[in-house]
Amino acid sequence: MNELIFFINKVVLSGAIIGCIYALGAIGITLIFGILRFAHFAHADLMTTGAFFALIFASLLSGVGPIAGLPTGFVVLPLAAAATALLAIGLDRMFYRPLRARNIKPILLLVASLGVTLMLQGITRLFAGTSIRTFFTSEKKDIFRIDVPFDLATRNIVITEPQVLLFVTTIVSIFCLHQFLTRTRLGKAMRAMADNANLALVSGINTDTVVSATWIIAGVLAAAGGVLLALDVALKPDLSFNILLPIFAAAIVGGVGRPYGAIAGGLLVGFSEALAVFNWSLLIRPFADFLPAWIEIPTRLSIVPTEYKLIVPFVILIAVLLWRPTGIFRGQIT
Amino acid sequence: MLINATNLVAGYGGEPVLNGVDIELEAGQIGVIVGPNGAGKSTVLKSIFGLIGLQQGKVELEGENISDVPPNRRVGLGIAYVPQEMNIFQTLTVQENLEMGAYIRRDDYTSAMERMFDLFPPLKQKRNSIAGNLSGGQRQMVAIGRALMVDPRLLLLDEPTVGLSPAFVHDIIERIIAVARSNVGVLVVEQNARRALEIADTGFVLAGGRNLYTDTGENLLNNPAVAKSFLGR
Amino acid sequence: MTEYRREIVLFAIVGIVVMIILGIFGQAYTLRMLVEATCFAIIALGLTIQWGYAGLFNAGIMGFVAVGGFITMFLSFPINDSFWQSDAPRSLALFALLVATIALVLFGLSQMHRIGISQRVKTALILVALVFAFFIFNSNLDPIARMIEKEAGFIGGLGLPVFVGWIVGGIAAAFVAYWIGRACLGLRSDYLAIATLGFAEIIKHILKNADWLTRGTLTVSPLPWPVPTPNELGFITARAAYLSLTAVLVAVIFVLLQRAYQAPWGRMMRAIRDNDIAAEAMGKNVNLRRLQIFVLGSGLIGFGGAALVSFNRIFDPSGFTPLKHTFLIWVMVLLGGAGNNAGAIFGAIAVYIIWVMSEPLTLFVFDYAAHYGSLLFGWEPPADLTTRALQSRVFVIGLTITLTLRFAPQGLLPERRIKVS
User: How many separate domains does chain A show?
Assistant: First the structure.
């Protein structure tokens, strides 16, 4: 029984946690890909910059959290999200729109986003330094231990407050996004422009407004993902590069331009990571008595060694790119 | 005069495709543009809608020069355009397609939508279907319906019957006539010159980016030179 | 002569800057910077033919640099006797035999459609076989790797001449590029960028974690030089000797590429880049040509990477970063002018100078800011000011990319379009 709880903690929960983070980033990637037709390489740094904004706001407004009964980093999330959305629009105005106006190849927008990602990285590190930062220097991180009502289970399912907040935020964001895309005029225009940009123009849709809306949504979700990731673990300087390829993998797995696909893709990549490094011998060992004697259970039996965890998303990414570049939900129109 | 385009010179960079085309059309009339491949038929529609810039000439809508108005604002002035290909939002429902057609309208457009469903009855049952899953004829209805949602004064149609089965072609042509009767000027580019000229109030025969003949549809059909070069047999 | 005025002016500016650096930082420092810049120039030439001639977006430069560096380390590093005297070589040979058998089985499976097995069954069988192969591979390599690490540290090198290492390093990078290219070149360009970025990361991770082969994070040093080392000649003379070698290499590669560019082969490559559909319609095998140039360019990148790693005298797989070994090279090519070989060389040297100099310059500015900040406002600068100053180069490189795209999208030395009559 304890083994099962271990499995829930190590695979189900941690897979879902990192999966939600990836999903929040991948939605932005996929929307930008759909509307502006380029791979936005600066997205992971938009996420860390969002977390960085939250750090600034949290230090300015320290003490707000305890009043609300929530971590300060989470309470200032709306502020950080607004700042990140503004930053995203500003970056578009400064670096991407002038290039779009010249009708250049989309691949050069990708190059521009490489430049932007390096600039963001450089600036945040110049100001924040390269050390690891956490929201929980003065506050305590609440940890919930959930008892499992079985006699054999002595261990608990462990989940922290930021993780609960992460799940809630992700679900609420996805619900709001769904309502926006299917119920509002601007949301439908966004889907229309992702579908057929020329026809959107012909229909009189103001494409500038749609582009701005895209950056706002992408920026808000990126900030949410970045802040919640930083709340869950910490804000590490090399964080952005480690999430860049997973969120691309998630967006491509789900099929670019499809927000719901990106969510599924994010969870898929997250669970794959957790499953790949999980030590399966722990789950098999209780059944050792039923196995023939000549089978010896190794102490470590994982699909890939832990030190290769980072390349799991890359492998998924490349497999999907080669096998089904349009995403695993090909043929199904949403 | 609803639309008066004079001396249009336009192209896609390099040599111009249009070398001085004139188009005139009254409200409630059907104008048909015919001509061989490469004559610049579609380019005329695009330049009237503003999708490509004019090197020379001007476009006037009811006497007002609109040559410098960007295409998405021409929609607001009452010009609607249906491209030849990729003319529906494939991943949106039929109703959402029509809503996108009415994007610039801030008023209540439910009556306009009901009118579309009356004009194209098959769309009514399919209003919540994904447009990309419809048949070719129904897609064309969605495309024209989307354009009509703004209650345009001028409707530009680029080969609306291409690739459709004969029954649907007849259907679409009936609808075009119906639209024109509601006092909308309709400018159609057609590959099938004979049938198009049959319904035309004015026909424009283009070749090499210039007007070759401009006359009533009937006169053009009876003009031996036109018949010989452009109508076959 | 006026035709090449831009080139002359720009290279003259670089020359003056180098002189200034020489005056401030001294000979040894400047020579090291120039040797590294010439190695980067070789890498940049490899990228400029991929991107400039054929429009291929290779974001995995770091992977090829790492392959070149690893091979040159493996071939040129002295022989590790404790490895060769242990049982490990025999086990490794047996392991190689096992791998060959697995490869043969997989190849056999991939040919099964010839005996009338349906595609679907074949794919399923191959997938199952791959999973098994993966586990067999891991479970057999693991004990050998542990044995080597315990008894010998790592397998050591082969003690061959350094130049052999460079050439084989280039060939190995080209070989890796062949397989990556075969799989990925059909993808649209932004997907190609993401895929190559992923492959580079995989290569780096394998090299970093295969301790038995590369010592991983423990790093391997000192690597031998193709010219006498500083221990024998002193820093200045040894580095000057190294520089003359790399400079000659850059010149030779430049001349060869220049001839290829003007030859029918180069014309065809440009035709494919500018309009692949038309080129295909004219009967050119577009995919094969792209693969050719991808392999050639990556080979050059591997060769340049080998020269760079040898010069640094240390093989450190964790030291390969996308920033320095991929994006920096992109800036060189973009700033210099894609498709212009002289531009790539100019870009490599100019950007490397910017890269190296942005740290001392920022420190200089920071020192002033800290000085006057504390003097005027009582500002207490953070203690890690120096490590932060290092980050300014990241920003500067990013800024250079965006400014180049905005104001000189063709680069400072644009490709010279040859009139085709």
Answer: 1
